[in-house]
Design goal:
Blueprint: E1 3-7, E2 26-31, H1 33-36, E3 40-44, E4 52-54, E5 75-82, E6 88-89, E7 104-108, H2 119-122, E8 126-127, H3 129-138, E9 142-145, H4 156-163, E10 167-170, E11 184-190, E12 197-207
Parallel strand pairs: 5-7, 6-8, 7-9, 9-10
Antiparallel strand pairs: 1-12, 2-3, 4-10, 4-12, 5-11, 11-12
Length: about 210
């Protein structure tokens, strides 16, 4: 048996789309090997660009920063919730899933295919209050999705999850690759910035 790894992370580029109203990222080469003897790049970006993780401080006044969490927070047993062709992500989608405390829930909608389209930010399905309450009851530690957000202003679902220290991953990609795997683990390591969010590399691992 060998381990198979599936990358669920959008590549960070200077032309990445951003949530409406957010500043565009900058990724600039500042040194070139034929001139300086080495290559170097500089990045300037908001924390909510591309595949990233939100911590409680994002929506909760005195919430934790990502840098305050220990490394074991970012590893766990994964569960894929199939919300393709759904107008909303409701609690009935959790039926049949044996989710335990400390697990990681990922939601596939298929919207990652529209990442560079205006529809991506305008027509994505939202998580319902019932779904969020069930995740809180189950004690999951992370919920991730292939959409730009679990909800829209005034961000009630964001606040419900983050108040209960359920970290949120937005803009995941490639989740349909997991549909054929009943069991998988998740590693979701954010950059250790002293901030309310950070870019995150999300990897699923499967015993194949």
């Amino acid at each position: 048996m060998r381990m198979k790894y599936i990358d669920l992370t959008h590549t960070f580029t200077k032309k990445m789309p951003v949530y409406p109203g957010d500043p565009m990222p900058e990724l600039v080469q500042t040194a070139f090997i034929n001139e300086a003897g080495y290559n170097e790049f500089q990045i300037k970006s908001g924390m909510h660009v591309g595949t990233h993780m939100d911590s409680p401080l994002h929506m909760i006044a005195h919430g934790k920063r990502l840098s305050e969490y220990s490394a074991d927070r970012f590893f766990g047993e994964g569960h894929l919730i199939d919300a393709r062709e759904k107008d909303s992500i409701d609690v009935d989608l959790l039926e049949g899933h044996k989710i335990s405390k400390g697990d990681i829930v990922l939601i596939v909608t298929g919207f990652y295919k529209k990442f560079n389209s205006p529809d991506y930010y305008e027509k994505y399905p939202e998580i319902t209050e019932g779904f969020a309450l069930k995740l809180i009851e189950l004690g999951v530690k992370i919920v991730g999705m292939d959409t730009p957000s679990p909800d829209r202003p005034p961000f009630k679902i964001h606040k419900m999850l983050l108040e209960n220290e359920i970290l949120i991953i937005e803009n995941i990609t490639n989740l349909e690759e997991l549909l054929k795997h009943a069991q998988f683990g998740v590693v979701a390591l954010p950059a250790k910035f002293d901030a309310e969010a950070a870019p995150v590399r999300v990897i699923a691992h499967i015993n194949d």
